[in-house]
Amino acid sequence: MDTTPEHLSESERVARLRLYRSENVGPVAFRQLLARFRTGTVALEALPALAKRGGRRRKLTVCPAAEAERELEALDAAGGWMVHRGEAGFPPLLSMVEDAPPLLSGLGHPHLLTRPAIGIVGARECSLNGRRLAERFGRDLAAAGYAVVSGMAKGIDAAAHAGALEGGTVAVLAGGVDIIYPRENTGLYHDIRERGALVSEMPMGLIGQARHFPRRNRIISGLSLGILVVEARQRSGSLITARLAGEHGREVFALPGSPLDPRARGPNDLIRKGAALVESPEEIITLLRDLPGTYAVEEPGDPFSDGIVAAPEESDLAPARAAITQALSPTPIGVDDLVRHLGLPVPIVVTVLLEMDLAGTVERLPGNRVAALMEGE
Amino acid sequence: MDTTPEHLSESERVARLRLYRSENVGPVAFRQLLARFRTGTVALEALPALAKRGGRRRKLTVCPAAEAERELEALDAAGGWMVHRGEAGFPPLLSMVEDAPPLLSGLGHPHLLTRPAIGIVGARECSLNGRRLAERFGRDLAAAGYAVVSGMAKGIDAAAHAGALEGGTVAVLAGGVDIIYPRENTGLYHDIRERGALVSEMPMGLIGQARHFPRRNRIISGLSLGILVVEARQRSGSLITARLAGEHGREVFALPGSPLDPRARGPNDLIRKGAALVESPEEIITLLRDLPGTYAVEEPGDPFSDGIVAAPEESDLAPARAAITQALSPTPIGVDDLVRHLGLPVPIVVTVLLEMDLAGTVERLPGNRVAALMEGE
């Protein structure tokens, strides 16, 4: 792999933005398209044909150049910036995540994205004690040189950001970076914009919705060496972030609490499953310092160079397409399992899934899993 | 080993009681004396000579027969009972502990001593929530068929006993079984006497003191399949009981708590060190049920038959005595380390240490360690 950061031309940056804003292009499809076509410009041209081969009947909506340029102008007018995966300013740990966003829009201080980071997440309806703890951990971890990452939700998230404002904090938003949500965090939003950083993979103006939260959570986890869960009920978003952190090979820290407090269920359960019980910020700092060097970060350079490059022959793809279509169901299955089950070569399966993904007939799920999307969905 | 319970004659029971009530005869010395001399009667006779060989100048005070008989009469008058290690009614798990008491006095229901047991310990100055939890765990574990063991201290201990009164509870006292301590537990004492069991290795009338607490704690741990710590500050007696449980190969359970609560420090720290985090009694029940059969309990029968029986020759002992005396200091050392360091046969070292123990020139410490006692101590 190339070890120098990429210098993308303006036209390639626009092409990549258009590619990511095109219908059915998720982070995994984006990665595979770049691996195969090398540039956004070429991938963009290939897009409609690929979708058609994946079973698409309606024409795939490719993001028009004018729309991408409008987004970049609006971002620029707001004093914001965009950083692409492979560029020097892209967060190196996030780049290692399989479904990392290929680009991030941001407001505020971009240098915070390349600082070692710790995520702090927890309940919206937190206790006063939980809030105090989140603020203290935010403050002390930021003072120790870590960027404190969270999702700017109310409750624990907001407290962690507030505590870390001075030392350095990064808010990952589910909507566009110009959209303040929730409204009660308006003051905090402006504080972070001035002293920290706000980032999102979504276009300016997009209003974040509940279905965007898991995508936001994977960025929080992807940015972070470890995730601290402060208060969380069972089956809450914070636990999903913690699970993602585990899947991303990151540390999971949890603040314990009384069995009588339902908000302690989440962290207690994480501890039971192997998360590190912590009572003070110093413990996290010590635990991270004592980690073996497993976080040797991917060097900047072309991050798309190690994918599948050669396109398989159509004569190989046609029978595979039928077998894969039959094998898939709405119940998610691992791509590895699919490969094993069908006994087909990996590049064939990956190519067919990419085409179906673009066609909107399969859905990508975390953990390299896929599911069939039923007609009309 | 003999697998039928022992039937001790009345005179042997009195001899064993006298032996254990004699000066400098601790549980380890008692065990070694029985292993060597087979009966309390013979060991009792040998006692003064052994102490003298260990460097004793004043004559060792052997418990007079009349004193032992007075103790048994008082116990009998109170409606109590005494059970010796090796007898069918002696708690089987306790029998497996190296420094198990060779006998227990008791009031109440002796059958509770042979039930599978769980210890619940914690802070005297507990929170109301801690008290509620201890009571609930006590009640539910006792209802599930476990004897709930504790130390009848105020706070967590008292709450655990109170919760388990109906199902079955065992209070281990630091003083004699007839001594109510602390006074505020007078009602609880009478309740346990009536519906549970009160036990002690100490003679009737002895007022327990702080220095007796560690000995009491080892009995709580020794009786129990596992120890649950509810609330405990750092460096508290409850943590000593938990440490003993670890040394005894028993389970350690801990109820987590907020980092803001100093009474959670103890349990949280235990969890950090590997104790099982639990939030409900059901979890303990499940964890104990799923244990591999490591608690195959020592069958009743002569528990003293596997010790050192043959007495070494005095010609071997004399030089060993000098070497051991020189090697020991007030800083505790493991008997195994001592054996390794000196390169002497185990029976020689054990015999010399037994004599020194009886002479009052060495002190036995938990974990099979010994320390020199300086003159005048």
Give a brief description.
Chains A, B: It comes from Marivibrio halodurans. Chains A, B: This is DNA-processing protein DprA. The first copy, chain A, contains 15 helices and twelve strands.
Give a structural overview.
The structure is a homodimer of 377-residue chains. With 377 residues, chain A is an alpha/beta fold. The first copy, chain A, folds into three domains: 10-80, no CATH class; 94-289, Rossmann fold (3-Layer(aba) Sandwich), CATH 3.40.50.450; 314-372, Winged helix-like DNA-binding domain superfamily/Winged helix DNA-binding domain (Arc Repressor Mutant, subunit A, Orthogonal Bundle), CATH 1.10.10.10. Chain A is built from 15 helices and twelve strands. In chain A, the strands form two sheets. A nine-stranded mixed sheet of chain A has the order 1-2-6-5-4-3-7-8-9, sandwiched between helices. The first copy, chain A, has a three-stranded antiparallel sheet with strand order 10-12-11. In chain A, helix 3 packs across helix 15. Chain A is globular, with a radius of gyration of 21 Å. Mean pLDDT of chain A is 92; it is low at 296-300. At the A-B interface, helix 6, helix 11 and strand 9 of A face helix 6, helix 11 and strand 9 of B. Chains A, B: Residues 310-368 form the DprA winged helix domain.
